[in-house]
Amino acid sequence: LIARYGRWVSFDPPVDAVTWPLWALPIALLGAGLLFARGRFRRRR
């Protein structure tokens, strides 16, 4: 599959200049979700 479609279909792509969003996006979404939840719970009190 990698030969045909590239590293984007790999289950464990290497971290480099092209694939860094694959690694950074889940961490960024988790952080944004935690900040959102924190803000929602803080307003209820």
The H/E string reads: HH
Mean pLDDT reading: 84
Largest sheet: none
Number of domain units: 1
Q: Which radius of gyration do the C-alpha atoms yield? A: 17 Å
Helical element count?
2
Shape verdict = rod-shaped
| Helix content class | 55-70%
Q: Give the total of beta strands.
A: 0
Oligomer: single chain
Structural class: mainly alpha
Would you give an account of this structure?
The structure is a single chain. The protein has 45 residues and is mostly helical. The chain has one domain (2-44). Helices cover 64% and strands 0% of the residues. It is built from two helices and no strands. The chain is rod-shaped. The model has no long low-confidence stretch (mean pLDDT 84).
Tell me the layout of helices and strands.
Blueprint: H1 2-5, H2 20-44
What tags apply to this protein structure?
45 residues; rod-shaped
Short description:
With about 45 residues, the chain is an all-alpha fold. Helix content is about 65%, strand content about 0%.
